[in-house]
Amino acid sequence: QVQLAESGGGLVQAGGSLRLSCVASARTFSSYAMGWFRQAPGKERGFVGAIDWSGGSTYYSDSAKGRFTISRDNDRNTVYLHMNSPKPEDTAVYYCAAAPFYTDDLRAYDYWGQGTQVTVFS
After folding, report:
1. 15-18: long-range contacts at Cβ-Cβ below 8 A with a sequence spacing of 24 or more?
2. pLDDT tens profile 60-101
3. Residue 9: pLDDT above 90?
4. 3-state class (DSSP) for residue 75
5. In 3D, which of 75, 78, 122, 120 has the Cα closest to residue 98?
6. Are 48 and 94 in contact (CB under 8 A)?
């Protein structure tokens, strides 16, 4: 019964920056690990990064590492994905999701947002 809503997507030039937000309806938001995933047309949904329940630990895919940063504010029931120096290949629909534990396996995520489109141009 957790509802997630992403926002902040849009058009961004390569080398710029963009911050995505995901607001959760859960009153126990702090009990969930949160992940970000993305899906481009014709591609499988792939892992971007995750953050544990406390916000003390993060884990990123190789493609996101060093460029993207995940953070969370449990008091505001919000998780963020800051995209620094995005590339055209980062173009996709980005989804946030909630899981009972910290993992990169999308099968473990119980709740998903509707997604927000990010388009990166050169």
Report:
1. 15/85, 15/86, 16/85, 16/86, 17/82, 17/83, 17/84, 17/85, 17/86, 18/82, 18/83, 18/86, 18/118
2. 999 999 999 999 999 999 999 999 999 999 999 999 999 999
3. yes
4. helix
5. 78
6. yes
pLDDT recorded at residue 26 = 82
Burial of 36 (0-12, 13-18, 19+ CB in 10 A): buried
* 72: nearest Cα among 121, 27, 34: 34
Count the Cβ atoms, other than its own, within 10 Å of residue 52. 17
Encoding tokens for residue 18?
Answer: 């963009």
